[in-house]
Structures are given as C-alpha cells and as structure tokens.
Description:
There is one protein chain. The protein is mostly beta strands. 11% of the residues lie in helices and 55% in strands. The protein has a 22-stranded antiparallel barrel, surrounded by four helices. Strands 3-8-9-6-7 form a five-stranded mixed sheet. It has a two-stranded antiparallel sheet with strand order 1-2. Strand 26 (484-495) and strand 27 (501-524) form a beta hairpin. Keywords: Cell outer membrane, Membrane, Receptor, Signal, TonB box, Transmembrane, Transmembrane beta strand, Transport.
Amino acid sequence: MKRPRLCLLxxxxxxxxYTSWAQSQKATEGKKVSKMDSIQQLQEVVVTATRSERQLxxxxxxxxxxxxxxIQKMGSLRLNDVLQEQTGLMPVTNHGNGIQIQGFDxxxxxxxVDGEPLIGRTSxxxxxxxxxxxxxxxxxxxxxxxxxxxxxEALAGVINIITEKPExxxxxLKGRYxxxxxxxxxGDFSYKYRKLGVYAFVNRYHTGGYDFTPAExxxxxxxxxxxxxxxxxxxxxxxxxxxxxxxxYFTESQTSxxxxxxxxxxxxxxxxxxVTDWNINPTLIVKFAPQFKTNFRLYASRxxxxxxLSYEKDNSVYDETFFTQTFLRPEVIAEFSPVKKHxxxxxGGGTSESVYATRYTSKKHFSTVYGxxxxxxxxxxxxxxxxxGRFDHHSLYGGQISPKLSGQYEILPWLAFRAxxxxxxxxxxxxxxxxxxxxxxxxxxxFGIEEQxxxxxxxxxxxxxxxxxxxxxxxxxxxxxxAERSVAYNAGFKITPIPRVMGNINFFRNNIQNLINTRPxxxxxxxxxxxxxxxxxxxxxxxxETDWTYxxxxxxxxxxxxxxxxxxxQDVLDQIAEGKIYIRDPKTLKTSRMKRNQYGGxxxxxxxxxxxxxxxxxxxxxxxxxxxxxxxxxxxxxxTDGNGALNxxxxxxxxxxxxxxxxxxxxxxxxxxxxxxDNLFNFQNTAQITTIPGRIVYASLQFVLAKN
Length: 708
C-alpha cells in the first residue's frame, strides 16, 4: 500500500510545481500574445463542429478548413481534387471516387452542402466528382464521430461544403481547358441590396475520357458531360427574422462502349447513362431575443440514375437499369444563451428516405425521428467544455443514443490541450438490407440480409450451388444486421511556439463494433460466388496526425501534414495469436503460422501518408501560385492467398508521391490567367485509375466584375 501512496504524493508534488511554473510563464509571456494577434485574427469561423458559428481556434476537436481562396490557388475543379490533398484524407476508388477519414471507408463520412446531406451513394461511396468547387466559400472537415449532432453516416466525420451567398453586386466568368479534352466553364452572379439578396451559379464540365489500355476495346474512363446549377434567394424581414431559399440541380450524361464475353463468345456493347440530382432548402431564422435564436429548415432531395446498354450488332438490349432515391427532412434547431459563457443548442426533426431500383424487389423505405442537445461552457479564458448527445429512432433498427464530450484547456499562451470522447453509429443502408443483384455477365450475386434466404433457396432449387462457405442452416434463416457503433478518442495539442508558426498534433483511436463487411456465402456451379453481409464484432483504427503551417513572409507560406494509421480486425489478431492463420512462402511454397508483425491490417489503408504545400501570393503584382506534394504509403489491395489476413507479397500496392503545381497572374483585379500541371511526373496506378488519371496540363482565364 505504501508504493501507491508514494506515487500519488510524487505526482501531486509534480503537478503543484508545474501549476506554479505555468502561471509564472503566463505572466511573463503575456507580451507574446500581441505578437500572435495577426495569426489569431486569421482563424476562420466554422459552423459544422457545433452547428453554431465558432472560431476555429476555440474548437476542442480536430477540424480542417479549406478556404475558397486556397482552392483557387490550387487550380482544382472538383471536390475530390481538393480533399485528397488534406492530411488524413485518403482517396479510394469503389464504384466512384470517395474519401477515407481516419481509416474509415467513404460510407462512414457524411457529405453536406450548406449543412444538408448529399444523397445517391453507390456501394456506400458518394461520387465526389459530382461536386464542383467553383462556388465554394470554404470546406469544413470535422474528424471523429459527429453522430451526436448529425446522426447516422457521420460515424467517421463530416465534410461540409459552404457555398457562396449574396454579397454586393458582382459577377464572374471563368473558362478552363486541359488534358483529355477537359473543358470547364463557370459563371456566377451576386446581388445584395438592403433586404434582398440573390445569387446564381452555373457550371459546365466535360471530359473526353482517357484510355490506359489502348490494346483493349473501350476506354478506361468514358467521356461525360455534367451541369450544375445553384441559386440562393435571401430576404431580411428585420434584424430578427431572415428567410433564405436555396436550390441545386445537377445532371450528367455519359456514353460508354466495351466488350463482354458470354458463353465463350465476345460481343461489343455501347450505350448511355444519365444522372440527375436536385435539392431544395428553405430556411427561416428567427431571433426571439438577443439570447435566443431558432432555425427552421426543410430539405428535400431526389437522386436518379438510368442506363441503357445495347449490342452493337443488332441494337438489342443488353442491360437496362435505374435507381431512384428520395430524401425529406424537416428540422428545428434552437440556440439559447441564458447567461454569459453558457450556450445551449437543442432541437430535433425527422427523415424519410426511399429507394426504388432494378436491384431491389420493390420500393423500400426508412424513416428516422431524432432529437439533439448540446451544452457549451466557456468556464474561463483558458477552459472550454462541450457536452451533448443525440437520440435517433430508426424505423427498422430502433433507438440509438450518441453522446459526446469535448474540451480545450490553454496551458500556456502558445500551447492548448484538447480532447474529445464520443460515440458514433451507422444503421445498415438499403443495399445491405434489401439488395438483390446478379451480374448477368460475370455471374456473381449479392444479397442484402432480408433477401439472403430467398436468393439462396432459388439457386439451391436450380441445383446451382456447388458448395457452401458458411453453415447452410444459418443461410436459410433471415437474420438482421446490427447497427455499427464506434467509441472514439481524440486528444492532442494546438501549438503556436513562435509567431507565424501554427501546429496541431492529434492522437485518435476508434473502437468499432459490428462493422459490416461483405462475405462470400456460397460458390455457384459456374465458379462464381454468392455474397452477403455480416457484422465483424471488433475493429480498431488508431494513429497520429499532425499539421504545421509556417508563414515565411507576407507572401509565402509552407504547410506540412502527416498521418500514421493502424487499422486492423481484432478477430484476425486473436486468430493469429491462437495460431489459426497460415501464410505460404512464395519461394519455398512452405506454409507457416502467421506472426503478429506480418499482419498488414485492413485493406486499402496506408500506414503512412502526408503532404507538403507551398502557397505564394503578392497582391501588388497580382502573382499567386502553389506547389503541393501528396504522399501515400503502400496499402493492401486484395487477399490473394485467401487466408483472411493481409500479409506481404503481391497483396500490396506500392506507395507513391504526386506533385501538383499552379501559377496565376491577376490584372487590375479583373482578369486572372492561370496555368498548372496536376501529377507533374505522370505517375499512374492501375489500382486507382480514376483517382489518378496521369498528367493533367491546363490553362484558365477568369473575368471578375464587382461593385460593393
């Protein structure tokens, strides 16, 4: 008993000495605060992390803000181009271009536009190239579970795209041409006079596609053209009552051609595909008192795709599909500050979602009712605490509670500690529950949990089951997937050691229960498989991420970021410890029990990733530019030896480094000429042929007219 007491006395003495030292440091370093005012004044205001306007430096959770000005210097056109250059965000290709956050796949990150969700995911991935960046004011990226504010799909984090709003009288027109016959044309108009504000935006994006395998028929990426229209109308009835109405319409058309093989014969097919996506969002803000503000919102959205492929020899139909998703959400959020330094946010709403598609036996529907509460306390000038939670009741999966607690303490004027503890959840989506799909060309099948029994029985009756890969008695029972849940820990420091230098270090760990994974259920007599979904009982994603920015002078800044990630299946680790997993030496062909250090973790996760960026701007000469390097370490692509665990060999894709450069010159604040090269050294990766399309050379011209 003596040792614990001695330890407590020892650490207590250290804490007392440290407290006295910290207080003296604060007194002696007060003069340094004024030197950092210029840095603190540059802190962006964000809304995503707390659903209220807060200064970035005061938030006790990891948040990245990418300004519209920075996006212009990068020369980016689509949302995926911007996100893949941010620390800890990894581009992935899975039925579209998606993004990972802290090791989570794209379907665990909620994508918002002005606080409202984009719908229309394919296999969990929302195609980020659907979103143009021409009207983006800033992008806010909140890492870690945000289910306490946003519910399902925010288990890994939230990406909120804040678009431009009516301001003064101004307009712009921009055109760009680049590699692969890429043409991007953007125009916008803004008008704000007294109570009325109007904003209109239009974008046309076209690419001729590209082909990495000219010896084969068809393109790697086929040509497509899309249009984006965005409007905002605002009216201030008074200083207390404000109304806004925003709408977005997106449409895309694509032509395709390829070769299919069926029963030993090859045929060429071609056709067209179309995507339409629209949403409308009326919002009414009423300030009943200086301390009490209420936000009434209604959001409606519809996403639709259709495709028709025909044989070129006789124009007969090869395949015809469609997919329609609708989403409706009314919501009321109130912010109340009963006394100074205390803010309460509360509210609720409901969602109604439906899907009707060729891959579902009938129209499917989910609904959710939710309520949320958040308490923010500025205890003193050094300490900020935020506590909150949300309750969701899903029509199929019942109630889910998602609490969260976060805080920030300023130890010294240049050093602040912040930490958060929260839970997130994700209910199974439509495909994991109701999907009924068989690939007519290759021959494999995928069934959601509710369709699994009927699908297995059908192939069994036809005598097309060669063998079962799991217990057949379990396959013939309609089960129910459990909602995925995570407990996340984030802790780190915000550091400004010297003027013009800012840094963040964050340690994170996510413990995931019931992670939903695709699994093979049975092998068909044609050699293909029937797939279904199952819960993985335990998975862990943890690591360190850090970002640093140094303003070398008033024109030039440099920033660097790095993430170390460990992502693994705890059940696989247990099997390795029990000696149940074997690997085969590719040279000697001998098998041996797998060791812990031979396990590479979950697929498609890089252990190491980072970036370095240089930004230059001289307002006098009108010259600006950027040079950005993005590194991604090796990652596992597939389990080629079938032992259920990622290990060394051909299961990995090699790491790579990309360099992007852009330069611009502005004349009289009215005309800007820009030129740049993405993927300067023409790196190509067959595993990511859509996210890394080779070297892209471009030039653009922009005209801006403004009267404020």
